[in-house]
Amino acid sequence: MPLGDRRPAPANLPALCPELRARLAAEGIEQVFLVQVTVLPELLAAAESPLPPADLCVSAPAGRGKTLPFVLPLVQARRRGAPAAGCAR
């Protein structure tokens, strides 16, 4: 589903803790790519699961936001391991 100019804002990533959504906004990230909206909830759920992680293959053109969905769950998990405002359990 092409989103064109209708890419969602980071606020539309409810699985991401409020502190990280605010940080994305502070860094000037006003819209996220379709790959991020699609993959990020899956990876955040996997980070919370007691099961071992499964493989995930993502394909998107260069510069289309593949790295961020893999990094944010790591940052969120780390912050939850050391509670911070907005990310506490």
UniProtKB/TrEMBL annotation:
<protein>
    <submittedName>
        <fullName>ATP-dependent RNA helicase DDX51</fullName>
    </submittedName>
</protein>
<dbReference type="GO" id="GO:0004386">
    <property type="term" value="F:helicase activity"/>
</dbReference>
<dbReference type="InterPro" id="IPR027417">
    <property type="entry name" value="P-loop_NTPase"/>
</dbReference>
<keyword id="KW-0347">Helicase</keyword>
<keyword id="KW-0378">Hydrolase</keyword>
<keyword id="KW-0547">Nucleotide-binding</keyword>
<keyword id="KW-0067">ATP-binding</keyword>
